[in-house]
Specification:
single chain; about 250 residues; alpha/beta; Uracil-DNA Glycosylase, subunit E; five-stranded mixed sheet; 5 strands; about 10% strand; globular; binds iron/sulfur cluster
């Protein structure tokens, strides 16, 4: 990334100083998970296995999207405009998870739009990520709670299987939980955000590494904490680099 462009993103998230990293610390281009070979019927043996796999994955994504759009598993279906599944490439090393759609997300059908979304985009771009190319963004809840109230436990319980299915399809190498509500619901804890930041947690059947940071809406209200969010992002990036280089450490030093 051009230095001027990176500084522009850092300016947007309120980070004034930018110290050029050594090549060893530079952002590593995300790699994508290897595709498991699919079993191919004899009659279709001439079809490349990768194409069969791709078709199966695309069909599973479509099924998931259709189910979320038609979901009535919790009362939120009655007040939402539409279910919001997520945005980004369908296989992605990075998965960002927020709390739930807000009013603008509910209207437009995409997570993290509006001012908070623009800040999130700037934060992600500062570590080389872009929702159009290499990071998938979703929420714990797929439907907007009325008046942006906190999700209720029964709503999270009903909706979480959709996220689990998304993770199976995405096969992310790292998850970034933004905000206390998302982090607490994903990790099954009521610990404050301050105790969840700066550590590598793990989520789900694949024990995907998970790092916690602030919600961009909170950072818009509390810009003094943007620098701590920047530390979280650098920590997440270092965890990812270690994972993709075949070694992990546990906590931020
Ligand atoms: S929040 Fe989840 S479980 Fe509830 S209606 Fe929406 S998609 Fe269904």
């Amino acid at each position: 990334m051009l230095p001027a462009r990176r500084q522009q993103y850092l300016d947007a998230i309120g980070i004034e100083l930018f110290v050029r990293r050594t090549p060893a610390q530079a952002v590593q281009a995300p790699t994508f998970a290897a595709v498991e070979p699919a079993s191919v019927p004899a009659a279709a043996a001439s079809v490349p296995e990768a194409a069969v796999e791709e078709g199966q994955v695309a069909a599973q994504w479509q099924r998931l999207l259709d189910e979320v759009r038609g979901c009535r598993l919790c009362p939120l279906h009655a007040t939402r405009t539409q279910g919001v599944l997520g945005v980004g490439p369908k296989r992605s090393d990075w998965l960002v998870i927020g709390e739930a759609p807000g009013a603008e997300e509910d209207r437009r059908g995409e997570p993290f739009v509006g001012a908070a979304g623009q800040l999130l985009d700037a934060m992600l771009r500062a570590i080389g990520l872009d929702r159009r190319t290499n990071v998938y963004i979703a929420n714990v809840l797929k439907s907007r709670p009325p008046n942006n109230r906190d999700p209720r436990p029964e709503e999270v319980e009903a909706c979480l299987p959709y996220l689990v299915r998304q993770i199976r399809l995405l096969q992310p190498k790292i998850m970034l939980a933004v905000g206390r509500i998302a982090a607490q619901n994903l990790l099954g804890t009521d610990a404050p955000l301050s105790r969840l930041r700066g550590r590598v947690h793990h989520f789900g059947e694949q024990q995907t590494p998970l790092v916690v940071t602030y919600h961009p809406a909170y950072l818009l209200r509390t810009p003094a904490d943007k620098r701590k969010a920047w530390e979280d992002l650098k920590f997440a990036r270092s965890v990812y680099q270690q994972l993709t280089q075949g070694a992990t450490d546990g906590n931020r030093s």
